[in-house]
Amino acid sequence: MKKNTPSDDEIKNYSHKKMTLPLMEHASEEMKELVWKLVKKLASYARVPGAMSDFKKMAVFAEDDAIVDVVLDTLQDMKYPFKNTDFIPDIMGYYYSIALISQSMHRREETIKLFNELVDYAISIKSNSALPLARNMDVLSKEYPDLSDLFEKAKTIYRFDAIDSIKERVPIQVNKLYHDYTNADKIEAEYINVENPEDGKVFVEVDENGYVVRIVEKGKNIYTKIFKHYSYDMINYAIVRDVLLRKHMEEMRINDIADARVVEATRTDLKKLYSDIEISVNNKEFAYILDGHEKFNNT
Asked: How many CB atoms lie within 10 A of CB 207?
């Protein structure tokens, strides 16, 4: 049977996926056909692996030690794509390759050594783009216990990613309505890990396990809710809503957070930024900021 080895033109057609050339270059002539099948599979994915079912897409390739050799050798020679200057466009292919070698015992010591280096590097630069690396260790440690220690270390990446998510996304939303009204530094200073939060103001404590959203009055917690790190959109919504609420209080010179004029102006803004479904879902979690906040006043 004739081997289905790719031509130079076929490889060029996949060269926009930046894992293609490195993988093919590390494949011997005997391996090019099998590696080509892997390349085409990697090129078909539109997002990085997240659930166990995603990671399991690589299980069949992980059973072939020769494939693992090619992938591991490729990853060992590559730069770490955890910041803008190192970023490779085919981030999906990169993390599926990580998932592949994670599910093989072949050359396991080398794989674990590489993962330690990747995690250490991502932590050292406080990467906000290495979340899939931490998730890889998180999900697969359930079946591969030797990834558990790596995940304990990689958890820090969740914290970096969560903080950067708030700092970047909240100003983007608010500034759609009020150009240059807020920025990342202001959001960090007023809403994230604040030691002495302003009474009645939303603030978020972020650690390796998730978010703790709090409201304090006179030094006492009057609202506390814990969220996992995947609740990015919900947490950002809470802070966007608080920023808008206080903007209107300041402009109207009203010191009552439950004043009908302030609340209505904030709701009008939110409708411009979010769909009715998003507002409905998030309001169930954060009714204290608008609909129910008056019951917390003067606590």
From this structure: 14
